[in-house]
Structures are given as structure tokens and as C-alpha cells.
Amino acid sequence: MTLAAAHPGFLSPTGVEIAFLLVGLATFGAALVTVTTKQLVHAALWLVVTLGGLAVEYLLLTAEFIAWVQVLIYVGSVVVLLLFGLMLTKAPIGRSPDADSGNRWAALVVAVAAAAALVWVVVDAFRTTWIDLDGAAAGSTAVTGASLFQNWVLPFEALSVLLLAALVGAIVLSRKAKADAAAPQVPEARGEQAAEEGAR
Amino acid sequence: MNGVADVALRLLVVFVVFLAFPLIVGQTEHKVMAHMQGRLGPMYAGGFHGWAQLVADGVKFAQKEDVVPAGADRRIFRLAPAVALLPYLLVLLAIPIGPGRGAVGQAVDAGVFFVLAVMGVGVLGSLMAGWASANKFSLLGGLRTAAQLLAYELPMLLAAASVAMAAGTVSLTGILDAFHWWWLPWQIVGAIVFFVAGLAELQRPPFDMPVADSEIIFGAYTEYTGLRFALFLLAEYAGIVVLCGLTTVLFLGGWHGPWGADGLGWVWTLLKTAVLAFVVIWLRVTYPRLREDQLQKLSWTLLVPLSLAQIALTGIVKVVIS
């Protein structure tokens, strides 16, 4: 009894919990449509809905900063880049029945394994932790910044070095493609392909 | 109950501002452009100096047939204007107009991130329109929009980050509370970078390559008619209001004025915003359109290094004075 009194139960959900669940379901549905639709650009737009739904989930968990960064980076930049690539390759309007890599089952296995691992880690790490929604925001910009630069500086720096390496790698690869295209013995068609890949 | 009325009133005020200010900017643009080009501009609609010209334009747009091209992706084609317009309404909610918590639609903790993130979503509308129209000019316009956004989002973010560093907060109201007059010369480079990058993101001249009417016939909006086209135009002018308001709040001190801000804070905000909007119109009449390669070059070789230099300067001054 005391345990039940100490922890809010599952049987009397608050409005925020119901909203969290519903948004989660909508996000999951949008994610399913993203990977199953046959229309390429629709997949990218459903991805916008999925990522937006995730941002709303962050908001409901009072992690405001993460939510807006999610919208800024993923919706504002990554999806725009995706759409840019789709437009460059002239994604057709309507269905593209041949847009199937044939790896459906392998992808499903990887997805389920990744989801299981993530759920296991999160459940194991947080078990019965409840976020106090009425108190000070646990994920405000100030709190996030303080914990990031006090407790997690080393991982943060390691990640930035990793990103820098990826950036340098991308530049080297795109310069290499350009150099190949400029070489005289390379046929014209291959040069075009390389340039397109460089742009992507 | 009082809380509900308060929220409703705030939403109503923001909505009225959202509907009225873009029209005022549009009418000013008619008149300012006309006088800069040595003509009168609209003079008849509404009687006094054609003040009702945009209302008449709105009625005209509402009467036009709403055409969806046969080859278009109907749903996305119809959705695109809303995606382009609504983000600006959301952004207006977070822009403080005067001192204190009463003068902002909704104080957002991570305000700078909120406004930049939501403004970025608006561009999706142009991309959707460009792709769904099934028109090669629209597709070209969409491509140019995406390329422009990717180039100018970075300097804009970096310039905003510089102010956030100076103020030690990413809340728009917090930045205004921390403002001192000497921030103006300190952050001037960032201000210019932010304003120019914002202009490019709105696709206003001289950065209107994505809509270049004389070569790709208004780009992503080629196939739009009637109200949907009007919504895209409204999005452009709402974007001007939002950009000028944001530049005012971030770099020009918002409600701070030379003779104190007692009760007059909102006048200062509106005045600065109006002056910036005038500059936006002025630039349109003054400069020829930048070519696509010039656009990219300006961003990557000038604006990004300048904004990085501004961040370095902000960091150094911040360490020295603390």
C-alpha cells in the first residue's frame, strides 16, 4: 500500500500521461507509414510527422530544449536535405513500385533488435522513476546545459571530435569524387554520377 | 476562469497582429516602391491614397478559381500553403513586445531555439509546393529553396547563438532583460549576418532566386491560384514581420529606448521593427537579384566566417568583462 501511495499508479493516469500515450501512438503510426509507403516524398513528409511527434513527447516530458533542437535539426535540416536529394533525383509523383531494396526482412530484424535493446536499456535505467511535472522543469535549458557541461563534458567532447572526423571525411570523399570526374580518362556518364553523389 | 480569458485574449491579440501587420507591410511596400521609382502606386481603392488596395486584392484572390493541376499530388499541393504560413503565427506568439511577462504571447524558455526551429519548418511548405505541382519550374524553385535554406540556416543560427552567449540565456525575454546599449556595436556584425541570412531564408530580393519570376515564373508557386497563392504571399509578408521583430529583439534591444521604457516599450519595439521592414523594402528596390552561385558564395565564404568571428569576439569580451 505504501509503495502504491509513494508512486503514482498506472490505473489512474493523469491528462499528461494520456496525451503522452496518444501522441506516442500517432508517432508510431506515422513511423510505420514512413517505412511502408510506396511514395518516396510522402515517406519523407511522414518522417516530418514522426519527428514532430517525438518533439511533442519531449515537450510533455518537460525537456523543452531537446524538443526544439529536435525540430531545428531534424525537421528543419535533415528532412530538407532529404527532400533536396529526392528532388534532385526527380522523385516521381505517385507510387514507385520498384522502390524496394529487397531487404525488408533484414531491416525488420535490425529494427526490432534495436528497439528491444533501447527499450531494455531505458527500462533498466529508469525503472520506477517518475518525473515531477508540477515542480521546476527537469529538462529546461539551464538544467540541460549544466548537466551537459558539468557531468558529461568528456562524452560531449568525444562526440564533437567524432562529428569533426565525419565532416572532414565527407569533404575528402567529395573532393575525391570531383578529382575522379576531372580526370580525362573517366567517361562522361560516370563523372555526372559522381557529381550528383557529391551534391547529395 | 480568469486564466482562460487571459490566454484567449493573448491568442486573439497575436492573431490580429498576424493578420494586420503583414498587410500593413504589404501596403507600405506598394507605396515605398512606387515613390522610390518616381510614381504614385495604388491611389483609388478606399479613397485616401489607395489604403484599401490589399483588401481589394484579397477579395480578388478569394474570387479566383482554385485550380489543382491534373498531374499534381493533390493532397500535398493543397496542404503546402498552410505549412508555409502557420509557423510564422506560432513564432509571433514568442516574440516579446514590451518589458515584463505581460507583453509576450507566451514566454518560451528556449525562445531562440523555438523561433529558429519553427521558422525552418515554414520552408517545408515551399518544398512541398515545388515538388507536388508536377511542374519543372516549380521543381527548380523547390530545389533552389532547399539549397538556399541549407546555406543560410547556419550563419543565422550562429549569429543568434552569439547573442545567446552574450546574454547567458536562450530565452527571448531574458535576452532583452540583459541588454545594454553597448551590445549594439558589440553584436553589430552578428546583427547584419542575422538580418541578411533571414532575408535569404524568406527569399526576398536580392535573394529571390528561388522565385525569380522572370526566369522560373515564381518557382514553387507557379501553379498556385486564388486563395492558396494569397496564403503564400501572406506567408512572405508575415515572414518579414517576424524577421524584423526578431532582429529587433535579439540585436536592437527590443523595448529598450534612449529615454527609458516606462509604458512606451511596445512603441520602441514597433518603431524598430517598422524601420527594419522599410529597409527590407528598400533593399528590394535597390539591388539586382543575386545569381545562384553568388548566393551560395556569399553565405559560405562571407556570412559563415563573419558569424564565427562574431562568436569568437563575443566569447573574448564575455570572458574579459566577467
TrEMBL record, chain A:
It is a multi-pass membrane protein. It comes from the Bacteria. Its EC number is 7.1.1.-. GO terms for molecular function: NADH dehydrogenase (ubiquinone) activity; quinone binding. It catalyses: a quinone + NADH + 5 H(+)(in) = a quinol + NAD(+) + 4 H(+)(out). Its main location: membrane. The chain crosses the membrane at residues 18-36, 43-61, 67-93, 105-123, 152-173. InterPro entries: NADH_UbQ/plastoQ_OxRdtase_su6, Nuo/plastoQ_OxRdtase_6_NuoJ. Keywords: Cell membrane, Membrane, NAD, Quinone, Transmembrane, Transmembrane helix. GO terms for cellular component: plasma membrane. It is found in: Cell membrane. Coiled coil: none annotated. PANTHER family: NADH-UBIQUINONE OXIDOREDUCTASE CHAIN 6. NDH-1 shuttles electrons from NADH, via FMN and iron-sulfur (Fe-S) centers, to quinones in the respiratory chain. Couples the redox reaction to proton translocation (for every two electrons transferred, four hydrogen ions are translocated across the cytoplasmic membrane), and thus conserves the redox energy in a proton gradient. Belongs to the complex I subunit 6 family. This is NADH-quinone oxidoreductase subunit J. It comes from Streptomyces mexicanus.
UniProtKB/TrEMBL annotation, chain B:
It is a multi-pass membrane protein. It comes from the Bacteria. It is found in: Cell membrane; Membrane. GO terms for biological process: aerobic respiration. The keyword Transcription does not apply. Belongs to the complex I subunit 1 family. This is NADH-quinone oxidoreductase subunit H. It comes from Streptomyces mexicanus.
